[in-house]
Amino acid sequence: MHDALAPLSVTPVTHSMPMAKNHRPDRSPTDTASSPSPGTVLDRLASGPSRASRITHTEHVPPRAGRHAVWPDRIRAEVIAAVQAAGIEHPWAHQALVAEHALDGDSVVVATGTASGKSLAYLVPVLSRLLDGSEAPNGRGATTLYLAPTKALAADQRRSVKELSQPLGNAVRPAVYDGDTPVEEREWVRQYANYVLTNPDMLHRGILPSHPRWSSFLRALKYVVIDECHTYRGVFGSHVAQVLRRLRRLCARYGADPVFLLASATSAEPSVAARRLTGVPVIEVADDASPRGELVFALWEPPLTELHGEKGAPVRRTAIAETADLLTDLTVQGVRSVAFVRSRRGAELISVIAQERLAEVDRSLARRVAAYRGGYLPEERRALERALHSGELLGLAATTALELGIDISGLDAVLIAGYPGTRASLWQQAGRAGRAGQGALAVLVARDDPLDTFLVHHPEALFDRPVESTVLDPDNPYVLAPHLCAAAAELPLTDEDLALFGPACEDLLPQLEAAKLLRRRAKAWHWTRRERAADLADIRGQGGRPVQVVETGTGRLLGTVDAGAAHTTVHEGAVHLHQGRTYLVRDLDLEDSVALVEQADPPYSTVARDTTAISVLETDTEVPWGDGRLCYGSVEVTNQVVSFLRRRLITGEVLGESKLDLPPRTLRTRAVWWTVTEDQLDAARINPEILGGALHAAEHASIGMLPLFATCDRWDIGGVSVPLHPDTLLPTVFVYDGHPGGAGFAERAFHTARAWLTATREAISSCECDAGCPSCIQSPKCGNGNDPLHKRGAVRLLTELLRSAPDAPAEDRGP
Q1: Cα angle at 203 between 255 and 189, to 5 degrees?
Q2: How far is CA 313 from each of CA 106, 367, 703, 787, 790, rounded to the nearest angstrom?
Q3: How remote is the C-alpha of 64 from its chain's centroid?
Q4: Are residues 564 and 693 both part of a single domain?
Q5: How many CA atoms lie within 13 A of 810 on its CB side?
Q6: Is 814 a member of any domain?
Q7: Is residue 25 domain-resident?
Q8: 48 in any annotated domain
Q9: Does the N-terminal or the C-terminal CB of the chain have fewer CB atoms within 10 Å?
Q10: Which residue ranges does the record annotate as region Disordered (predicted)?
């Protein structure tokens, strides 16, 4: 470790310098000059009847000057010349600092803003080392492994590496190795590529179990690049942490000790999260020295409609419809834009609505808007990425599959349909615009949801708060156990290996022996079964084999749906959208993991309903809140999808409900829960008639608000409220992690409970509705049809509960 570095020569520059990824301008000066200012674009969007009143707040982020430095003198001259040939004369100060650490052999995380040149920061030392290695007698020399959370990002980075390293000739041989790589190319990658780009899934299932075939690559491994490392959170992040420990173990057996180079969006304590992820000490570089153009960030609340939803609640226009309108307007103006939406269906809907409205203006414009989401076939994704790069597409409705670092320089505006779950993700998405140095517009369009409504009326919670810490737990036994089996299958596990995988190994290994998954022979544990041990770990928590969506009649494969989402998204009767076309699901075969669909044009969308029961397995921690209790521990959740609603497109009006017959699913996980006593209910004036509704309303609103305090979104967590729970014998509200073994979200809720429940009470009490609506206490995923709910009872109940809450530690007083 090197605590001190040679002083860097730092020179301020103006913010007008190009600032796309690696600082290459994406458009000509004429294009940039002719682009309207972000303020002008916003004014045009806000013109027209009632539009201006929908903007609840506008934040102006001023431009920032950049600070240049010089590359460390150990970087090869040929690499510096290649970078200069790409139009980058000098690095930003943070890039030079990252390169210095990498050359010193220190693992380092660069956590700076979008378009700050993080890729170049790690690429320059990596290319220099590969160039050194190319002169080795065996010709293979040094190697580098690059990990991205998505295939699209790996493909995009390969293009960048090829462009930058072109002047270096054959010294740098980048290649993508993932599920889309043709079989005939894979052997070449193993034998000859020295910069292999892949994802954690392929590393876990393909590379590590076949490590003898990768021995020459692993033996020469000098750097492991982990891009967009802030996305490795919760259960997925915990799995990836154990995959990286397996990689380090195999590298050590081959005599290698790679340095980890991590790139992250701005996050709290990035070095702490990076160390938990990799298991090695990591130095932090978080002082962003890149320039930034002006950013105008608007908060936008769709208007109330004349319609009424469940229980007569007022209904706002949907964020999907509002975003589709805005994307249409931006496209007509010629403003290059991307609209981020949380769900695959939402991305499809926005693109379909925008295309229909654009066709009314100019048929040629309709072809310049498309959808981009996971589940598309590889050739569809690549075609969309090329069209976006070339400017052929003016507007794109995308899921977060496009958020993660794909170089889409030159965008003028970003629309965000619903708060993406964390402030880190919000800024990451907003940063997609303005990547060529021009000013940019970002608009957060609120959903009819407690958290979104709270945020558009409390902008300080977004703009005056630091971004969140990344939550992951590598010691989760549900995560660790299958990786111990996978590690033993790769090489027998010895006592010396156990420190690498964490203290929980000691308790787990006897259990794995008892289950006859591992066997102790001499001084090591061995995998004893014929099956592939790597198949035990479902690292993305998708719940099993993806469900294939197949068109009846033609037999054509349209795409896939995660197994965990199949019950709610491709059940019989569900509306399924793909590439702008609408399909109805005729049959879901869970045994063969196939959903059969046929093209249709129903005037509605579908939403699944489910029921949930919960039991307490073990209480780990318990804190008195007056006579009530705040608890954290292990629970078992039983969930069953029982029906689905048909909702009219655009308005969301409920047209009807149909029953379903799907099997229940059981989940053992972690939860936070609180109880209240009879005396507290009396003090809050809660009688038995309204108790269930008050608890239920508080549960819904607290789930909606938790993403402000933990790096999750409401679909990562679930809840149950019971007027008399059999395990606590008291009225109880549970909020649980929606992943086996827990994801750290409920634990974070326990430690921030006072601030979290205070914000929940404020969100309910400040809502302008009379009896409750989707902006405060109604939930889009409620299995009971949002019945019963009692808004005023929830406020009184939370007020009484918080009256007795112990003082919160300083770090837990706010999001």
Answers
A1: 80
A2: 57, 38, 19, 12, 12
A3: 28
A4: no
A5: 0
A6: no
A7: no
A8: yes
A9: N
A10: 1-67
Element (H, E) at 812: none
Mean pLDDT of 399-410: 59
The pLDDT score that the predictor gives to residue 140 is 65
Please check whether residue 740 lies inside any domain of the structure.
Answer: yes
Q: Which residues does 10 contact at the CB level (< 8 Å), separation at least 6?
A: 67, 68, 69, 93, 289
Looking at the structure, do residues 212 and 336 belong to the same domain, yes or no? no
Distance of CA 292 to the CA centre of its chain: 24
pLDDT at 50: 81
Please, where are the H alpha helices in 261-343?
Answer: 270-278, 319-332
The average pLDDT across 573-584 equals 88
Are 336 and 449 members of one domain? Answer: yes
Banded pLDDT at 34 (limits 50, 70, 90): low
* DSSP designation for 333: T
Same domain, 245 and 302: no
CA within 13 Å, CB half, 218: 20
- Domain around 499: 477-535
Q: Give the angle subtended at the CA of 579 by the CAs of 577 and 584, to the nearest 5°.
A: 25
Residue type, 482: P
pLDDT at residue 409, as a whole number: 58
Bin 279: left if φ > 0, else alpha if -120 < ψ < 50, else beta: left
DSSP collapsed to 3 states, 651-717: CCCEEEEEECCCCCEEEEEEEEEEECCHHHHHHCCCCHHHHHHHHHHHHHHHHHHHHHCCCCCHHHE
Judged by average pLDDT, the poorest of 2-16, 156-170, 278-292, 725-739 is 2-16
Q: What is the pLDDT of residue 405?
A: 45
pTM of the prediction?
Answer: 0.76
pLDDT at 172 over 70: yes
Residues 300 and 266 reside in one and the same domain: no
> Domain boundary at 240, 259, 285, which?
285
Using the predicted structure, report yes or no on whether residue 117 has a pLDDT greater than 70.
yes
| Number of C-beta neighbours around residue 466 at 10 A | 13
Band (pLDDT 50/70/90 cuts) for residue 4 is: very low
Instruction: Specify whether 759 is located in the same domain as 712.
Output: yes
Q: What is the pLDDT of residue 407?
A: 54
User: Could you give the number of structural domains in the chain?
Assistant: 5
Q: Do 49 and 160 fall into the same domain?
A: no
- Strands 575-578 and 581-589, sheet pairing: antiparallel
Q: Tell me the two tokens of residue 739.
A: 């992943």
In the listed set 285, 314, 343, which residue is the last one of a domain according to the structure? 285
Q: How many CB atoms lie within 10 A of CB 656?
A: 9
Question: How far out from the chain centre does Cα 299 lie?
Answer: 21
Amino acid at 167: P
Tens of pLDDT, residue by residue over 341-358, are: 988 888 999 999 999 999
